[in-house]
## 1
Amino acid sequence: MKAASNKNLRWQAVVAGVGGQGVLFVTRMLALGAQAAGGRVLISEVHGMAQRGGSVISHLKIGDFAGPLVAMGQADLLLSLDPGEAVRNLGFLRPGGAAVVNAPGPEFLSPEARTAVAAHQVRLVCLDAAGLARAAGAAKGVNLALLAGAAASGVLPFGAAQLKQVVLGASPASRQQVNQRLWQAGNEAV
């Protein structure tokens, strides 16, 4: 789904996780990627109990929208750093949308959730981003590995190379090598 500079593009995403996983970092990188592609971006962040490991969710819209909140059943993408948060936020996805989840496989879904995913023709991409981050020597880099996997899977409205450039451009010099490894790991896992 690559429509880099389409001025008529209307695309919505929900990024979910728990405090400390980097939900806001992922959302910021997606927003910068969309802006680099010429898109108008709106963001809303709901921190919840972020400092205590509680739910964190952010909404991101690209295009001509009046407000930043994604309505239930309208998101093109659910990007979840936590399998439990993926289940909790599946209702945001539109039929035919995509869910990219930090999980080794779809086993994290209950039978009822799997039925709902199938009924709504949701494209489910499970990526063991936690394992990839550990293997890359950066256990806290789950967010970047998952973001790279999402980009490689083609679910974003702009190119993976463009997002990689944005991410590495926003990375401090001390994180360049590890972020490069994380990006490569997530990219190659899809």
Note: Residues 11-189 form a domain with the Pyruvate-ferredoxin Oxidoreductase; domain 3 fold (CATH 3.40.920.10).
## 2
Amino acid sequence: MSSPLISQRQLDRVMNYIDIGGGEGAQLASGGNRLGGELANGFFVEPTVFAGASNEMTIAQEEIFGPVASVIPFDEPEDALRIANDTPFGLAGGVWTQNLATAHKVSRGINAGTVWVNCYGVLDPAVGFGGTKMSGYGWKGAKEHVESYLYPKAVYINLG
């Protein structure tokens, strides 16, 4: 189950990306449809996974903001980093590994504002959230966000 999208416009946008993925040669492994039944009147899309995707495909290069994932094979962690960073966006990324050294190396190497290891989408209000590159600069939440509205000032008064 996935959460609803924000609007009909976003639903149409996500469905268009699903069509583009298939049209560019990725194989639809799961999902790809609007949810029906009791959810037919909402903006729900099945969680969608494309296999056989390449990093040059639109579904791998653009922020979809919907439940669509592209599976791109790689052999070495360096290949994964090259693939992950070969995009104009950098909001978030995820790493799945049983090797803690690999988790640290890859998470440091991903050019994104947030990187999750062995989980995805976990947020803590005490930790800011932001992106890099075309995904934006700066942070929302946490003290960094509050401090962006503040400025320091030094005042010196001689009373003598």
Note: DSSP finds five helices and seven strands in the chain.
